[in-house]
Specification:
single chain, four-stranded antiparallel sheet, about 0% helix, about 50% strand
Length: about 180
């Protein structure tokens, strides 16, 4: 099976991949050798490296995230955040929290130590495509009858109405946004 993602750590010369065959692999990009391989028993559709490059968070089709320590190569744990497939994951700037967006339009803010959901928000009526942190805000794209781009406060998940009339099609293949 083809890898579902292959991000590279900027702090090392290694790549990490997750496959639909339920394996996580650390690969040397210079020669293609597999440095480390671990069977997880669960296929992943999305994953992100932490900003420090020391951890990775993977999302599966059952609403679980899997946390993995790249440096020690220890799996930390599976954690159930929702009931539907995970669509996106984002670490905050100090890697202490992650955002998880799912296929039912939910966004979860998850504290990593101790591991617990801080809050969840029904962001979209259909599904969440992407989640990201920007300063004290959460920016999310998704599929909705009203708005496809939404802003939420990190502190409590309340929505900020910055773009009340923004109704562009934000499917991942056709919508790109950037903050500068």
């Amino acid at each position: 099976m083809l890898p579902t993602g292959i991000p590279r750590s900027f702090s090392s010369r290694q790549m990490i991949s997750c496959n639909s065959d339920t394996t996580i692999k650390i690969i040397d990009p210079d020669n293609g050798n597999i440095i480390f391989e671990m069977e997880t028993g669960d296929p992943f559709d999305v994953f992100r490296l932490s900003n420090s490059g020391t951890h990775a968070a993977f999302g599966d089709r059952q609403g679980k995230i899997f946390l993995f320590n790249i440096k020690t190569r220890d799996k930390e744990m599976f954690y159930k955040v929702g009931e539907s497939p995970v669509r996106d994951i984002c670490y905050n700037s100090d890697d202490s929290k992650i955002l998880v967006g799912d296929a039912k339009g939910m966004i979860y803010l998850v504290n990593l130590d101790p591991l617990k959901i801080i809050y969840s928000v029904k962001a979209f009526s259909r599904q969440t495509y992407s989640v990201s942190f920007y300063k004290n805000m959460i920016i999310a794209t998704g599929r909705d009858d009203k708005k496809n781009l939404r802003f939420f406060r990190v502190t409590d998940g309340s929505e900020e109405d910055y773009l009340p009339d923004f109704r562009e099609d934000t499917r991942s293949s056709s919508f790109i946004y950037g903050m500068y």
